């Protein structure tokens, strides 16, 4: 009886071990769980969560093909002609909720195959009595930085535009440029800056400090450019279909200030925009003239087609050697047309006429462009 029980127990034990080994042999490893990209709707459309994080990312940009044309311009020495350009822009935006508010960042990369963005600045060397010319990468077809910054709550720091690049929807009224080339290109709109914005919805205000000519290397007393700093601020109010803002900026290097204001109002089938600016003398914010006023009316003809006729006048367009205004005036009229071909594909065309009297000579010119742009 004991021998029989022992044999039966041994057989049962062997069967259990064999069964366990057989079961182990055919069990496949479980697949790793997959994490799919999730839509992030906390910051608007187009954002998605970066897998494994709570950071929301948005990828956007555009591809633009444009043909520019102009007539002779005796005051600037430009001959009549045309040029073509293809531009690509990619923008990455990342946002995260934190205990201090929204943490955001933007990276904007742009390239032109026919670049008009060559930037070079010559400054005296600190020692040796010579000078150095600094050129930015915007002078070739490589990608270069446009607006790129970090934001936390109401603070923004990085490389971004100031007030004079906002403009009106048409292409006739010039906020950040001169009616003709008289030794400069108008406002210095893109700089390394720091800004704080208080936004209460219908009312907002921001203050900003700008470091002008940010790509020009070190700022030192010996190089004579230690004061290339400016401060500016904007107050904005929204009243139903009307938006009004007021800008003030001061350039410490030139010791001059500029004031500006833009009003937009929904009237009838379109939107009226009025821009005005006043300058106390040569400065990097606005010195195209002592004062200017311009207006455009963007008319929505159909859901896809709109036109924006506009006009602008400048008074005292000449700067003397002391940075003071010294006579002359200019005016400009034109029209801009926009057509939405389909979703994210649009065409824009503009033609403008400018007449300039700089106090000693007079000249006029035509300019315009035709643009096709695919945005995403």
UniProtKB/TrEMBL annotation:
It is found in: Cell outer membrane. The keyword Cell membrane does not apply. GO terms for cellular component: cell outer membrane; pore complex. Transmembrane segments: none annotated. Keywords: Cell outer membrane, Ion transport, Membrane, Porin, Signal, Transmembrane, Transmembrane beta strand, Transport. GO terms for biological process: monoatomic ion transport. The keyword Cytoplasm does not apply. Residues 1-22 form the signal peptide. One of its GO terms (molecular function) is porin activity. It is a multi-pass membrane protein. InterPro entries: Porin_alphabac, Porin_dom_sf. Gene3D superfamilies: Porin. Forms passive diffusion pores that allow small molecular weight hydrophilic materials across the outer membrane. Consists of 16-stranded beta-barrel sheets, with large surface-exposed loops, that form a transmembrane pore at the center of each barrel. The pore is partially ocluded by a peptide loop that folds into the pore lumen. Belongs to the alphaproteobacteria porin family. This is Porin. The lineage of its organism: Bacteria, Pseudomonadati, Pseudomonadota, Alphaproteobacteria, Hyphomicrobiales.
